[in-house]
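Data availability (excerpt). All sequences and predicted token strings are deposited with the supplementary files. A representative entry, Peptidase E, is shown inline so that the format can be inspected without opening the archive.
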Amino acid sequence: MKKIKYIITLLVLVFMLSSASNSHEYYVSVTKMEYVKEEKSLQIISQIFIDDFEKLIRERYDENITLAIKDESKMVDVYIEKYLKFKLDIKVNTADVEFNFLGKEYKDDIVYCYLEIENVEAIKTMEVKNEVLFDIYPKQQNILRTKINGNDKSFILIPENNKAVLNFD
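Structure token line:
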């Protein structure tokens, strides 16, 4: 029964994140992580509402920034990468790893940030701390969905519980 409630909650949150409204009452991001063994790569897509990310960038870096416009500032990618490196911490097999920011794209009202960790031989354990937007939205929830070694796992991270630890042994 508890598992069913968790799945329903997760589906509701994903639906809210994917809705195309311009404003929202819920503060949610979704980060998907998939290990591609053939490429020795941990591929990551982080989905964040454009208006929430824009508010954060304006407060933290530059009050004149506007996201998802034709003549967007070249600094947007710099700010996004800097922020994600500060708020998204990943350990693979107990070792800190750095991700590469590959870029971003806008779809509807969401910014999709593409990240990659290269040269990952195997994943036995993984620890993910995701504090994206916790600094401006106390009710922010970050959904983490992983597909590692054929195992699918999902977590909801909140400011009081911002870390997921996974074991694949």
